[in-house]
Amino acid sequence: MKMKYDPSRKLTRGAKRTLYAFSETMFNLLGEKPFDKISVNELCQQADYPRATFYNYFDDKYDLLTYCWYRLRQEVKLDSLSEARSSETFLQAFAQIYNVFDAHRELLVKVVAHNPLDSPLVFNFTNYFTGVFSDLMAASDQPKHLKTPVELVAQHYSATVLLILEWIFLAGHKVTLETAETYAQELLAPTTLKALA
Cross-referenced InterPro entries, in alphabetical order (predicted)? Predict the structure, then answer.
């Protein structure tokens, strides 16, 4: 998903502050209400920026949402998967995702309380996350020895990771990182992780 503003370019301090303010406001509001009930006016008011500033950076609230996923991707350091050569590297990335979800567990529960798993918000996140996996796998050496199309492998990875995270963080199962990694190994071992070993 392409954003109006390219956050990968060198940002001024002002741009960093603005992007941070709007994304934090979006995350906070998602913990209070459904995504479809959030307006650009409310985002601007809560972030304390005029609408003109919002539209300098984003086309609409969906564009801001994409930036929020980008910011989460940076926090998780998912781009390290592009250098993956083994199942251990994938599990290291899984651990990073787990730790970020664990650090934001309270907000995550609130977001899902207002935006159920079948909501447009979760669908948007799942599509973004799957696209990231697809891009990273296409850029790595991993798919070259797999007969399965890269897009399908990416969907398999992301669906499995999201399933485990949903089961742990949203269904309220108390599971350590080590146990979660075991689940990931067992769920992926018969297919892609075996091919990556």
Answer: Homeodomain-like_sf, HTH-type_Tx_Regulator, HTH_TetR
